[in-house]
Amino acid sequence: MNTEQNPATVAPASTSDTLRALNERIQQASSFVDLIDGEMQKVIVGQKDMVQKLLVALLADGHIMLEGMPGLAKTLAIKTLSEVVDVGFSRIQFTPDLLPADLVGTMVYSPRNEEFTVKKGPLFSNFILADEINRAPAKVQSALLEAMQERQVTIGSHTYKLPEPFLVMATMNPVEQEGTYPLPEAQSDRFMLKAVLDYPRKEEERNIIRQNTGATARPAVQKVIHPQDIINARQLVREVYMDEKIESYIVDIVHATRQPGEHRMADIAQMISFGGSPRASIYMAMGAKAYAFTKRRGYVIPEDVRAVCPDVLRHRIGLTYEAEAENIRVDEIIGKVLNTVEVP
Length: 344
What we know:
- The protein is built from 15 helices and 11 strands.
- The chain is α/β, with parallel strands linked by helices.
- The protein has a domain at 1-30 and 240-344: Orthogonal Bundle (Helicase, Ruva Protein, domain 3).
- The strands form 4 sheets. Strands 2-5-8-1-9 form a 5-stranded parallel sheet. A two-stranded antiparallel ribbon has the order 3-4. The protein has a two-stranded antiparallel sheet with strand order 6-7.
- The radius of gyration is 21 Å and the shape is globular.
- The N and C termini lie close together (10 Å).
């Protein structure tokens, strides 16, 4: 089935002219996506999928969690993106002795002025790297909640707005689980996407060696976009057209993770302890719109939904003890859902 539909065929005829105008406007406005991708490729060898997901999270005004082995360019990716977009960047190394004040800041007493002044923490930046977030206790992880959800931080009796655009990228190491603290459901649900990274291919790894051991320095990236352009693009992403059939498709996918028996998947009903929340539906819709924007389209097709679905649902589906005993992975459940729910 060809899902790459013309915008005139995914909406009533009365709105086709408006859709064509919107599509042309988004094609022009999304030209910076290619510029960002080109600059990122100067430094990041391979990992195109990771760069794509970072852009989706940024354009959809969400946050992203990356799970992968050390050395897969997670830190380099977010740092390079901050340079390309020309925004502030803070890296926070999460450790067991970290305190909430180490993130948000604290009140400091000044003997000279005989008053308390606010010392802002590293959260007061645009792009935040929460490195190995599962190594810090829950009270530190929860210090991110207000910042991620409300885009503000409270210190003492005062609340301060965080700069825009704001993006949190958290990393998790899939090995060395001893001494780590699993993220509470309320915390992980704040992340729009959870991506799992794999090792580079052989040819990519050869290029990585050449880039990091050669006589020439690593190429410098150029600032190709202003932060305000990202803020404007986020508004345009919300205007991307989504047909009612696509909305129903998203609802069916999320509902199938809660009540698989109602979608001809009774065989996995005993494998799921809880399914996706309404936030999953919201993020899947926003993610699909942002993905369409990166493809320079003003309308969403089913393939956009399928592209973002695994990363949106991966951390929102709970497995039962039976599933874990049989080594069933969440990605297998998601694959079953995508293969069963009817595509519009």
